[in-house]
Amino acid sequence: MFTGKTLVDGEWVIRRDCFSRSQTLGATCQNSFSRKVTLVVHGELAGNVKDMDRLLSRKLLTVLDSRKAGRHIHVVDAAGYSDLLFGAPARCRDLKMYGDQVTVIPEVGDGFLGGPFDRLRLRTRQLSRFEADVLGRGTPRHEQLLSRLVEQIAGRPSLDVRAPARRGPHLDLGWISKQTAYGAWVAVPQRSAGGQVNRLTEAIEHVGKSVRSVPRHGQVRPVVVIEDSADLNSGLEAKAESIGVLIGNVREIPC
Predict the structure, then answer these.
(1) C-alpha angle 112-90-217 in degrees, rounded to nearest 5
(2) Residue whose C-alpha is closest to residue 60's, from 41, 83, 82
(3) 183-200 pLDDT, tens per residue?
(4) Which of 24, 169, 222, 230 has its CA 20 to 30 A from that of 176?
């Protein structure tokens, strides 16, 4: 179900065309509520919607009533719907009632973190030269270190392991802790004399630039995760700190 026209990757798409795009992917769409409705797409979640007897407002109120009755209805915003169209998972948005208003509070990490972490999706994404040569993605060493990181983050019940936002920086995985969204890049450059530090410096600069270039909500901390044996000298740490990037091995990652 749709509340009206929706932004799909920045382009306004009317409801009829949203129906068509969704049905092409096997979804069944309808305009009125029934027990068959499991997903509501709302393109204007970032703000308040007053109940002025508008269809959009009534739909959101119906979603709230259904949730209170124990029947969950998934709600996604325009970015989430765009993700679904491209085969990426979308997070369910929380709705809250304040007086006569349905309010959606933007979540820390919006624009930076996406849906649930998907290891298979991460393994099959296309790699750039930088990702392959500097970060070492696709190598056994990278897979091993990433597995250690996933195990540590997933082992904390209070943390939800997240994938990168589809249109955000290409981090490996992320999580939210104490109102801060963390995004981790695992870096395992080739072991060569003098080359490892240079490549780690390149990785830090790339990560810092990637985070600055995208709009996001709330406090965001990029993290570069390195192997225990990596040469982490004071100059490298100072460089990372100067551009707002954390760097360390798995045991030192804040979570």
Answers:
(1) 30
(2) 41
(3) 999 999 876 655 778 889
(4) 230
